[in-house]
Amino acid sequence: MPDIDSNTIISVNDLTKTFDGITAVDHITFSVKAGEIFAFLGPNGAGKSTTIKMLTTLLHPTGGAISMNGHDPAHSPHRVRRTFGIVFQDPSLDEELTAYENMEYHGILYNVPKDKRRQRTKELLTIVELWDRRDDLVKNFSGGMKRRLEIARGLLHHPNILFLDEPTLGLDPQTRNLIWNYIKELNRVEGVTVFFTTHYMEEAERVAQRIAIIDRGRIVIQGTPDELKNATKSASLEEAFIELTGRNIRMEEPSSLDRLRARRKFFKRAGR
8-270: what fold? Predict the structure, then answer.
C-alpha cells in the first residue's frame, strides 16, 4: 500500500486490468503528491494508456483500488471528473469554433457559472498568450497554439489534477519548451498536480519531480530522475529508460480512432 497522507492526491494500490484473459496492468502501486509534476513513462503497449483510462473513469479496474483526491473513480465517477482536467494526445478542439467559444463550451459542460467561466477564460487565455486571438477560428491556429488552448481549456473548471497525454508530440523544440514553461508556471501559481506521459525522455528528465516507469503492465521503478539514473548507473534518463525496458521496438498503442472514441465517451459521461 502506498504511503497515504494529507498530501497524497492520487493513490493507486494493487491495480489490475485484464482483457479477455490478457493482463494489461498487473498489480501496480504508486502515489502522487498534491502539487507534484509526475511523469508516467513506458514503451508502447506497456500499460500507460490503460492505467490513465482507469484513473480518469473511462475503464473500470479488474482489481485493486484508486483514490483520486479522496474519491474512488469506480464509485464516484462524477466527483472524480470534477477533480481533473485532461489534454489528450490527439487534438480534441472544435476547429469550426473560436478559441473563446471552445472555452465557453467547456465551461458550460462543467457547469461553471457564467461570470466565473468568463473571468477564468480571460485569465487562462492571457497566461497562454491567446487572449488577443480569442475570436479567431481554431482551424487557423498552429499546432502549438492549439496545444496551448487545450491546456487552458483543461484548467477552466479549476481542477486539482491535470492529465497530459503526450502534450508536446510533434511540436518543434521551441514550442515544446514554451508549453512546458506555461505548465510549470501554472503548477507553481495554482498548485495544480500534473500527471503526464511523454516519449521525450529529455523532457521528462527536465520537468518531472518524480517518475514511474511501467513495462509489460508492471511498474519497474519509481523515483526522481537522479534516483533512476543512479539506480541504472546511467548518464541520462533516456539511457536509464532503455536499460530498464530494453531495446526492442514494441507494438503500437491504440490508434487515433480508438482515442477519439475514448474522448467522445469521456465527454459524454462528463456531461451527464
Answer: Rossmann fold (3.40.50)
